[in-house]
Amino acid sequence: MTAIALSIAGSDPSGGAGIQADLKTFAALGVYGATALTALTAQNTQGVRAIYDVPSDFIAMQLDAVFSDLKVDAVKIGMLSNGSAIETVARALDRHKAQNIVLDPVMIATSGDRLVAPAAVAALRRELIPRALLVTPNLAEAAELTDASPARNEKEMEVQAREILTLGARAVLIKGGHAEGSHSVDLLIGQGDVVRFAAERVATKNTHGTGCTLSSAVAAGLAKGLDLVQAALEAKVYVTAAIVGADSLQVGEGRGPLHHFHTQAHDPEKWNPVFGKDRAQK
């Protein structure tokens, strides 16, 4: 059977984040991607200019269309900017008995622009966190979900992750990408031991869509049948490599996108996937 993952998120017309990043990630990791759009944004690598919320009844229609036809193995939830959309998605997840739900509580874009109305945070806590297998907040998002200041160290990260667990999530992957230090450390915390994922920090400004990519990579792993720890580990490896490869792209004037297809990159002077090496050199 074909592994299928569904992204419920907003659109980024510049292609680096949101639905576009999710589809690229699913494709790169060998998973068929389906989508339900929750918002249209006018944004690029420099910032968000405008947001148009998709009407809640149309979000529901998209979800019903996908779930009624496709066997969805995992769901990634991204940008939901208002309480009505959040409640609509929650009802659809219940209606279709969705499994392997990964919630990325998107609140602020990489550029610093706010994507979610503050009033929607309560709905996120109440409606979606209890339905999630995994919640993937960065430090700022974890702080907002727990009404605290951003964690300054791994101990504080663990405390906030465990508080999010009390809201009903089965596991939390709290991301330390915005922290300081030579390594970027993420902590996976569920009912058992803390699992620590550390990668050497990459010196680059091109990190647009990092959170979207990580959560969709975890969902891709779950769709393929990996357990949560392995899916999170492979997602961390994939995202780190995509960040390392980001500077090989020259996209936009601001914070550029990750290189989602870094593993497929090739030198056309050495190899052409259609005609082979000899033809490519002619």
Describe this structure in words.
The chain has 282 residues and is of the alpha/beta class. It has one domain: Ribokinase (UDP-N-acetylmuramoyl-L-alanine:D-glutamate ligase, 3-Layer(aba) Sandwich), CATH 3.40.1190.20. It contains nine helices and nine strands. Strands 3-2-1-4-5-6 form a six-stranded mixed sheet. It has a three-stranded antiparallel sheet with strand order 7-8-9. Strand 5 (101-103), helix 4 (120-128) and strand 6 form a beta-alpha-beta unit. The longest helix has 17 residues, at 228-244.
Task: Provide the low-confidence segments as ranges.
Answer: 267-273, 275-282
Helix content: 25-40%
Main sheet? 6 strands, mixed
Give the class-level CATH name: Alpha Beta
Q: SSE layout and pairings?
A:
Elements lengths: L3 E8 L6 H11 L3 E13 L2 E7 L2 H14 L4 E4 L5 H13 L5 E3 L16 H9 L5 E2 L3 H8 L7 H12 L6 E4 L7 E7 L5 E6 L9 H14 L4 H17 L31 H5 L2
Parallel strand pairs: 1-2, 1-4, 4-5, 5-6
Antiparallel strand pairs: 2-3, 7-8, 8-9
Top keywords for this entry?
UDP-N-acetylmuramoyl-L-alanine:D-glutamate ligase, 9 strands, 37% helix, disordered C terminus, 282 residues, alpha/beta
Short description:
The chain is an alpha/beta fold and 282 residues long. It has helices at residues 18-28, 56-69, 83-95, 120-128, 139-146, 154-165, 210-223, 228-244, 276-280; strands at 4-11, 32-44, 47-53, 74-77, 101-103, 134-135, 172-175, 183-189, 195-200. The strands form two sheets. Strands 3-2-1-4-5-6 form a six-stranded mixed beta sheet. Strands 7-8-9 form a three-stranded antiparallel beta sheet.
